[in-house]
Amino acid sequence: MTTVVATANGRVRGAVVDGVHVFKGIPYGDSTEGAARFAPPRPAPPWTGVRDATEFGPASPQFPTALRPGDAPILAALFDAPLKHPQSEEMLTVNVWSGGLDGPANRPVIVHLHAGAFQFGWSSWPMYDGGSLARDGDAVVVSLTYRLGVLGFLYLAELGGPEFAHSGNIGLLDVLAALGWVRDNIAAFGGDPGNVTLVGDSAGGGVVTGLMAMPEARDMFHKAFTISVGGSSGVQPDQATAVAEAIIKELGINRGDSLEPLREIKVGRLVRAQLAASARMGEFTFGGSFRFGPVIDGLHLTDSPAQIAARGEAMDVPLLLGSAKDEFTLLAADMAADLDEQRARQIARAMMGDHGETVLDTYWSRRPGATPGDVMLAIWSDSTRISTLRIADGHVSHGSNPVFCYLFCWESPVEGGKYGSTHILDSSFWFNNVDAAPITGNGTERYPLAERMSKALLAFARTGDPNHDGLPEWPAYRVDDRPTMVLDRVCEVSLDPYGAEREVMTQVSARELSHRGL
After folding, report:
1. Using an 8 Å Cβ cutoff, are 226 and 395 in contact?
2. What is the pTM of this model?
3. Which of the residues 423, 427, 428, 454 is marked catalytic?
């Protein structure tokens, strides 16, 4: 069965799947190739007739091992990532799942931004399918594609001048354009444009906190939800410029040369230059940093999102946020297994300077019998948790809207349980799509937790409060006792979970954790 909706640019034809109206690949922006590269997005041109919207649009050009060699098989095996999805610079599209097109346009709207270290990822990822949320919560779910890596976050302002002033945050501007499309069109899909919740996991969560720190994003969404947002402190201009200089050097362009050839080079060559420069500078490691992400450019971002929140200058909206207990097992479980104490202490000092020994000893004292690798995995994982709590602290200290915190502790049974409750494992639970993520295994105990978590997301999207009958009472976060919903086979509220670790880790600066540790 097909279904047709009229948007501001023209009519689109979708499909009805299990009672949900599904539309895929609707353009919200024009092509980003040629002269449009490294420039803010342009509106999508209108069309005549009825445009087919039954297939996902292309992904942003990328190479799915941009994070670390070998990750693509991990993503494919554990998370069913669509690695072979088509890629194109005509990628600015949205996908919509609606619980219904009839009646008043009052359904809550959930806009999701995918994970991928700001360098790769897909709105077509099966675990992000919006059908369950739309159907179970009579909601409207939107996912979108935006420019990544060298196309979305290559900071050229100091190398190319005012013409490239926006280049370091093009990915954020794409998302803003998509939110503008939602504002102008979502009522036609049954959604309430005045009740939009922006959701992002991992790098997508970094986009959410980045937008909350940008004045031009105010009033573009009304609630925010971040999943495992560590590492989102923003890239400093000097670091971003060094990355850009390394990339243009790979392309035979020297500092001081015209950057116009960057708009003419084939996109595949740009992505290969990104990978080559990253390898030459040092891959994403615990002594390195993210090579791409929102840049503190003084134009769109004046400081890190955490610092802007700490000053009370971030967008004041209801906020739901949290992380997983074992964030870094996905990246480092195998490497950590080979660590001895001497190497663990070297890494801790590299991450946190003289304070590293104190951190390591504190974690070890709280984990009798743990191996050096176990302790380092806990410290690396808490880099994400502490970054998340810094954002929560800033918002609750200055904002008028509630903040709700969670800690995801359900452990994956696959591969002997070595991943525990790892990074973005909880994403499939929030979307009630655990069968789409092989890492969740095949046990039936997954389903009750997925139902509780997805209902919490739906409640938050509808009212700004995640409480519902399937969970114990979830109090708003407070700095004095830090109530946190622990999500596991049994869900319960814990006051300041892993408090001793939190206390010793918060003595490490956010810049050290984000740029040296993550």
Report:
1. no
2. 0.95
3. 423
Check if 327 is active-site. yes
- Catalytic one of 202, 278, 304, 514: 202
Residue with tokens 């109206």: 21
395 labelled catalytic: no
Say if CB 141 and CB 112 are below 8 A apart: yes
Sequence-distant (≥ 6) Cβ neighbours of residue 90 within 8 angstroms: 27, 31, 32, 33, 57, 58
Buried b or exposed e, range 383-393, using 16+ CB within 10 angstroms: bbbbbbbbbbb
Q: Which of 172-181, 288-297, 355-364, 379-388 bottoms out in mean pLDDT, i.e. has the lowest?
A: 288-297
Give me the catalytic one of 250, 327, 411, 501: 327
Residue 509: its pLDDT value, please? 57
What is the chain's mean pLDDT, rounded?
Answer: 93
Please give the distance of CA 514 from its chain centroid, rounded to a whole number: 15
Domain 56-338+377-517 of CATH type 3.90.226.10: no
Say whether 494 is catalytic: no
> Which pairing describes strands 403-408 and 319-324: parallel, antiparallel, or unpaired?
parallel
Domain ranges of the chain: 56-338+377-517
